[in-house]
Hints:
Blueprint: E1 6-8, E2 14-18, E3 23-25, E4 32-36, E5 44-49, E6 52-54, E7 61-65, E8 70-75, E9 78-80, E10 83-86, E11 95-99, E12 102-104, E13 107-110, E14 118-119, E15 125-127
Parallel strand pairs: 1-4, 2-5, 3-6, 4-7, 5-8, 6-9, 7-10, 8-11, 9-12, 10-13, 11-14, 12-15
Amino acid sequence: MNDTGIVLTGDGDKRVDVGSGTLIAGANAEGAFFKRDSESKGAADWRLSDCTSRTSATGMSHYAIGGERNRYIATGSTFEGGRLEASAHAFEGGHMLHTANVEKGVDRSGLPEESGNIQHRNGNLIIGAAR
Length: 131
């Protein structure tokens, strides 16, 4: 995937699976490769495994997750440049597990605080974090 992305909108449950060596790169008008706006209803499953997400564009996010009832798992992936972003309420009724990933120069300031159902710091190799 180059200079494109996926935006989840509307009602109903949704699922995004990205893996098997997929490369996501560049930038797009939405400012995120994977995005869910706060108006989207239903649950959303995000599964990122064995993929590389790469951007050097200012303000570009690997993901920007809004709404509620998100169930996010990212393992064994590489994130280069850009930022990681999720609203404070994105994982109410869901969870976030971001572990065993490599991050190179990624801005993590857009992530919610860790809690019992939100884990994103331990188990990652974080190199040259932007923040």
